[in-house]
Amino acid sequence: xxxxxxxxxxxxxxxxxxKHKKMLDGHLGKCKECAKKDVTNHRNKNIExxxxxxxxxxxxxxxxxxxxxxxxxxxxxxxLRYATxxxxxxxxxxxxxxxxxxxxxxKRKTRIMGHHEDYYxxxxxxxxxxxxxxKLHKESN
Length: 141
Fold this sequence. Notes:
Blueprint: E1 2-4, E2 11-13, E3 17-19, E4 27-31, H1 32-45, H2 47-58, H3 61-77, H4 79-93, E5 112-116, E6 125-129, H5 130-140
Antiparallel strand pairs: 1-2, 3-4, 5-6
């Protein structure tokens, strides 16, 4: 079955639309692609409000408890990664390694993190931004 998106005007399979009980055919009038763009644009236009909301939400007791539980599971599941990241963090903290201000791949000046090609070499890292870090992990899989 096909449906026309009221936003982009393209005719797509029904699977390209989110389900919505109150719509006549049971699916939203705009496609998933357009809905995602709208949500992203709205968040970007109101980013400070959303950041404050996220900061407050992260302080809720049930979220703190869930985060601590997640951390414990992660540390147990990946002890080498945890140890490697701890060693790197301490080296940066105590000035043995200087963390650059910009990404070594895209040169953006943003939050920088160390990417390990080999967890057995904790101080051998590529300093990258979050976007480039995700790309590196995607390429290695």
